[in-house]
Design a protein that fits this description.
Elements: H1 2-24, H2 29-48, H3 57-66, H4 68-77, E1 79-83, E2 88-95, E3 102-110, E4 113-122
Antiparallel strand pairs: 1-2, 2-3, 3-4
Helix pairs in contact: 2-3, 2-4
C-alpha cells in the first residue's frame, strides 16, 4: 500500500512538473512574430523572387530581406493567437499588395519552438 502511494505521488509530481515546464516554455506572441517574419522573408526569397524576371531577382531578394521589420508588423496585425496555457496556436492570414499572393499559416508554439502545420497560398 505504501509503495502504491509513493508511486502515485511521484507520478503526480511528474505530471505537475511537466505542466509547469510546458507553461513556462509556451512562446510569447513577439517570438512568433519574429519567427514568422523570418520564415515569410525566406519564403519570398526562395519562391516568389525566383518567379520574377531575372533582372529583378536581386532587388526582390533585397526587398524581402530589408523588410522583415515591416513583415513582423503585418504579421502582428494579421495573426490570431489561441493560448491554451501549455501551448499556443497562431493563425496568420497575410495579404500583400503589388500583385503578390496571399497566404494562410497555422502554427503551434510549444517548448519555445514553432511548428508550421498548415501553409496555404491563396490567389
Amino acid at each position: 500500500m505504501k509503495r502504491m502511494k509513493t508511486a502515485i505521488s511521484v507520478g503526480g509530481l511528474a505530471v505537475v512538473g511537466l505542466g509547469i515546464g510546458l507553461a513556462v516554455t509556451n512562446p510569447k506572441s513577439s517570438a512568433y512574430q519574429s519567427f514568422a517574419a523570418k520564415k515569410f522573408a525566406s519564403h519570398l526569397q526562395e519562391n516568389v523572387c525566383d518567379d520574377v524576371p531575372k533582372f529583378l531577382r536581386q532587388q526582390c531578394r533585397g526587398f524581402a530581406d530589408a523588410n522583415r521589420g515591416q513583415f513582423q508588423k503585418v504579421i502582428a496585425d494579421t495573426t490570431q493567437r489561441q493560448n491554451y496555457f501549455f501551448f499556443s496556436i497562431y493563425e496568420t492570414d497575410i495579404s500583400m499588395s503589388l500583385g503578390l499572393p496571399s497566404y494562410h499559416f497555422s502554427t503551434v508554439g510549444i517548448l519555445n519552438q514553432f511548428y508550421i502545420y498548415e501553409a496555404e497560398k491563396k490567389s
